[in-house]
Amino acid sequence: MSRRVWIIVVAIVIIFLGLLAGINYAAVVASKSTNSNSTNTATSTSPDTVPTQATTNSTQVCGASVSASDLRTFQIVPQQTTASYKVRENLIAFNLPAHNAVGTTHKVTGHFNISRQGTPLVANMNMTVDLRDLHSDSSTRDDYVRKDYLETDKYPNATFKSTCAQNLPKTYQDGQQVTFQMPGDLTVHGKTKQATFLVQGKVVGNTITGTATTTVLMSQFGIAPPNLANFVVAEDKTVITIEFTAKEG
Predict the structure, then answer these.
(1) Distance between alpha carbon 13 and the CA centroid of its chain, in Å?
(2) Which residues neighbour 123 within 8 Å (Cβ) at sequence distance 6 or greater?
(3) Looking at the predicted structure, is the pLDDT value of residue 28 above 70?
(4) Which of 28-32, 188-192, 239-243, 245-249 has the lowest mean pLDDT?
(5) Which of 45, 175, 214, 247 has the most CB atoms in a 10 Å sphere around its CB?
């Protein structure tokens, strides 16, 4: 074969191989384009957002479903609230009639919820009384009570926690005076016991005023009734009263 013919044959082979490469490249590009379109199509058919669960606007309170917007929170106003104890004292040595010893404090904090939707509810009550601030008509008595009986250096606070009120009326109108019971856990002197407060109160606008009273025995909480060498002997029974004002917010 002459040199010229050989050159022509080589050129034809090169051109043929180039055509094959071009065809193969075009096929690859077409394949990628098809895959891309398929992916885009799949993506476009998928949801743009993830469905969210419907939010609830109600909550369970005292076994009833209550609208969150109707569940109102009230805070105790310490300056307008008084917590007190009342104990009968017998003045044996002085041959005097028995009288009531009363100690009070304004250092009361707490909060609770009410609802007037359907049947009225009072719930989630939490109250704290600073026993270190109790004062009576006798500073000597106060020192004995704080140091030797309540031991306020060790147990500075009394607390009351209640989940639900009982025996509320079926309906309520603003300004109406109501009476009901508030059972819960009373903690004094490091011991927690069941106690039920009898509550009288009313709602006027965004303010609640009322009185809560219960009777307990000191000995239930590991406190011996005060006895000052048989000169002054206190009874075991103690009346606890909270005259309160609470405001919404």
Answers:
(1) 87
(2) 61, 62, 112, 113, 114, 115, 162, 163, 164, 165
(3) no
(4) 28-32
(5) 214
pLDDT score, position 38: 44
Structure tokens at 8: 């022509």
How far apart are alpha carbons 245 and 211 in whole angstroms? 9
CA-CA distance, 82 to 212, in Å (whole number)?
A: 11
What is the pLDDT at residue 95?
A: 77
Q: Which of 238, 237, 233 is nearest to 91 (CA)?
A: 233
Query: Which pairs with CB-CB distance under 8 Å and at least 24 residues apart come from 87-90?
Result: 87/218, 87/225, 87/226, 87/234, 87/235, 87/237, 87/238, 87/239, 88/234, 88/235, 88/237, 89/232, 89/233, 89/234, 89/235, 90/232, 90/233, 90/234, 90/235
E-strand ranges in 165-206 read 178-188, 191-204
* CA gap 160, 129 in Å, rounded: 9
Question: What is the C-alpha to C-alpha distance for residues 237 and 228, in angstroms, rounded to an integer?
Answer: 17
3-state secondary structure of 30: helix
CA–CA dist 108, 132 (Å, integer): 11
What superfamily would CATH give domain 58-248? Answer: Lipid/polyisoprenoid-binding, YceI-like (2.40.128.110)
E strand or H helix at 141, and its extent? helix 139-144
